[in-house]
Amino acid sequence: xxxxxxxxxxxxxxxxxxxxxxxxxxxxxxxxxxxxxxxxxxxxxxxxxxxxxxxxxxxxxxxxxxxxxxxxxxxxxxxxxxxxxxxxxxxxxxxxxxxxxxxxxxxxxxxxxxxxxxxxxxxxxxxxxxxxxxxxxxxxxxxxxxxxxxxxxxxxxxxxxxxxxxxxxxxxxxxxxxxxxxxxxxxxxxxxxxxxxxxxxxxxxxxxxxxxxxxxxxxxxxxxxxxxxxxxxxxxxxxxxxxxxxxxxxxxxxxxxxxxxxxxxxxxxxxxxxxxxxxxxxxxxxxxxxxxxxxxxxxxxxxxxxxxxxxxxxxxxxxxxxxxxxxxxxxxxxxxxxxxxxxxxxxxxxxxxxxxxxxxxxxxxxxxxxxxxxxxxxxxxxxxxxxxxxxxxxxxxxxxxxxxxxxxxxxxxxxxxxxxxxxxxxxxxxxxxxxxxxxxxxxxxxxxxxxxxxxxxxxxxxxxxxxxxxxxxxxxxxxxxxxxxxxxxxxxxxxxxxxxxxxxxxxxxxxxxxxxxxxxxxxxxxxxxxxxxxxxxxxxxxxxxxxxxxxx
Length: 552
Fold this sequence. Notes:
Layout: H1 2-8, E1 10-11, H2 22-27, E2 92-97, E3 105-111, E4 119-123, E5 131-134, E6 136-138, E7 141-145, E8 150-154, E9 157-163, E10 171-178, E11 181-182, E12 186-189, E13 200-205, H3 212-227, E14 232-236, H4 262-270, H5 272-275, E15 279-283, H6 286-289, H7 300-305, E16 315-319, E17 322-326, H8 338-351, E18 359-363, H9 400-407, E19 412-415, E20 421-424, E21 444-448, E22 458-459, H10 463-466, E23 472-473, E24 483-487, E25 492-500, E26 503-510, E27 518-523, H11 526-530, H12 537-551
Parallel strand pairs: 13-14, 14-15, 17-18, 18-19, 19-21
Antiparallel strand pairs: 1-5, 2-3, 3-9, 4-5, 4-10, 6-9, 7-8, 10-11, 10-12, 13-25, 16-17, 20-21, 20-24, 22-23, 25-26, 26-27
């Protein structure tokens, strides 16, 4: 629905630019009941002169310049200073996302005010941005304080627009005009056309936050972006950690902590150098959805700040020869569930067109296979797979889901949640796997949960059994044969290059290192996916006719 509304606000030429009257614009803004928003004055109107506000993120800082990072113990340290969105007039927190069409790109940004002139100008020529898309704008408030008679937090104005008529696979440029100010002209590459043989490149992270380590990993990716062109980013949940971090959050009168929304703004600004130049595709994790963990956010803030296809929790989209499917691991995926039925239908449809999409990639938050003792494999409530207390058990992940991804020839499963790096061999299950990446038969699972939050290096292995709190390496007595590589001692990020219809290259970079520490080529035979779709009646008759002719 949001993308449909955005489409209505797109204009094709600057000369046809729509100027929305103030009364219409106000109707596009979400308003909490009983509360009104204040609007900043547009340029040229009288008002008090604002003091300049500068917010800077030190991407080039080293580990010892951030507060309390301890790489020996895997401690990510303090969060960086928080951005005050009420003082940020210029467009910021700029982020792109795919809609599912190669000719489109959604965009969101934030300002501390809104005017009648809110738009993005874009086109394939940097000096001639002849397309214009007008944005819709919304704002939300968080945690009403009865005693103070005011809200604890009021968001900036979050603007959303849709760029259409893009040329698939081509470089485009855009510039935002918002709140009386302009952004820089920014470059991005549109998604290759569905089914094209154009190589596709993606970054992959999980469990990021706004810590010093988060900044350093982001800086590593910014450096990589100068070396090569990426089409997009896959973020496997646990995005900003606005909900809590070691109890350092505001408290209400009952001493209950609640999510600090300024962290969302800080994270949005931290990743802008990445998200403003490529599609930033995220799936929610337990820190966005889980009732207990999210301190009552329950996915609502994620939905307000991200533009994803479908229902935004689980969705699919294509980029050239790759079809991506995002699933929500904090919801059931059994055969009777809404997500389970949707997931099977998507996989079935993709498998009818594997000549078009030879690569099928699923991404999610929680992995189903994990050798780190901190979470282990998927084990129901004990493994932290369900929301606490009031929510029913989340089902389907240990039976229905593994069967579906094998039967439908999923190639890669990308994960976060566990704060380490792990790459499996091609796996059918914990008992059957192949120790080769040539002509793979089963999905390869890659967990990239080491992109900012504290690492799972140590674990009190005997605490439950013997009440012994001694800390051991988190891989203590855990060495399954299906785990091909793992690292619980370094932060970092991952990359994927889909080179052609049969070869993908996976790389892992450790934080602060210029060169990758792993580079693995995974190949597959076309026979695997050409046999994925069931034979139609016509194809069966053809084969039968050929058999008769050969017999004769």
